[in-house]
């Protein structure tokens, strides 16, 4: 039985704001958004589990990063969560030229009335 | 209880090949890949249901289209299906300059041992 969350757009926007703010400020703190079953595919390299995901993100070879979301589209999934497609640009360290990226997230509700990331796929876009 | 399909990568690749071959040959035939609950968000415009989705795709203002998949990443979802992130390029009609796009699909199994598209989000990427 499908459970469509009528607030999916609001949830998606709040999540995306929070995710990139946290990523750009202190990406180790993203651990709270993942669970043991969560998956991250970052530039076609995959890891599973909150700990492994945050280790992967923390090991990326830049000190400073700034994400700028260009577009955000979301749809509900049948679990009461949402699927999100972001396109945007990011700047790392002292680099002046932004890189285009796309990222998709699938959020599932947890048992505390919040949401966690089940699927996370990130890809740079070369034009 | 999660149902992870160990064949998710093969399913994702076969699906993506079939989807764009069908889209580029006769996009009205994509109707078999959608169900009444399926959602399409195409350039931030959303429709629901196989019939409405195919009408939307068929109404796009080009006669010829060729998709070229650049990257395909997939992860399993807990229903036995998969989530897919594609980046690629497309050429329409006599246009010589390809457009970059990104598209995410969520596939769910049907009761016949096949898969249908539950979520479909398409977005052009401007660099």
TrEMBL record, chains A, B:
Keyword Nucleus: yes
Alphabetically ordered keywords of this record: Cytoplasm, Nucleus, Protein transport, Transport
BP GO annotations: mRNA transport; protein import into nucleus
CDD domains assigned to the protein according to its UniProt record, in alphabetical order: NTF2
Gene3D superfamilies: 3.10.450.50
Main subcellular location: cytoplasm
Subcellular localization(s) per the UniProt record: Cytoplasm; Nucleus
GO-annotated cellular components: cytoplasm; nuclear envelope
Every NTF2 domain range: 11-124
Keyword Protein biosynthesis: no
Residue ranges of the TM segments: none
PANTHER family: NUCLEAR TRANSPORT FACTOR 2 (PTHR12612)
Function comment: Has a role in nuclear-cytoplasmic transport of proteins and mRNAs.
Stated name of the protein: Nuclear transport factor 2
């Amino acid at each position: 039985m499908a459970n469509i969350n009528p607030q999916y757009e609001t949830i998606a926007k709040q999540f995306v704001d929070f995710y990139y703010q946290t990523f750009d400020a202190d990406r180790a703190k993203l651990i709270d958004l993942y669970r043991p079953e969560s998956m991250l595919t970052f530039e076609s390299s995959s890891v599973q589990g909150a700990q492994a995901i945050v280790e992967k993100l923390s090991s990326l070879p830049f000190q400073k990063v700034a994400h700028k979301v260009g577009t955000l589209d979301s749809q509900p999934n049948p679990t009461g969560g949402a699927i999100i497609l972001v396109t945007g640009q990011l700047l790392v360290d002292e680099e002046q030229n932004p890189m285009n990226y796309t990222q998709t997230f699938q959020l599932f509700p947890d048992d505390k009335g919040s949401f966690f990331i089940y699927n996370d796929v990130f890809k740079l876009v070369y034009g």
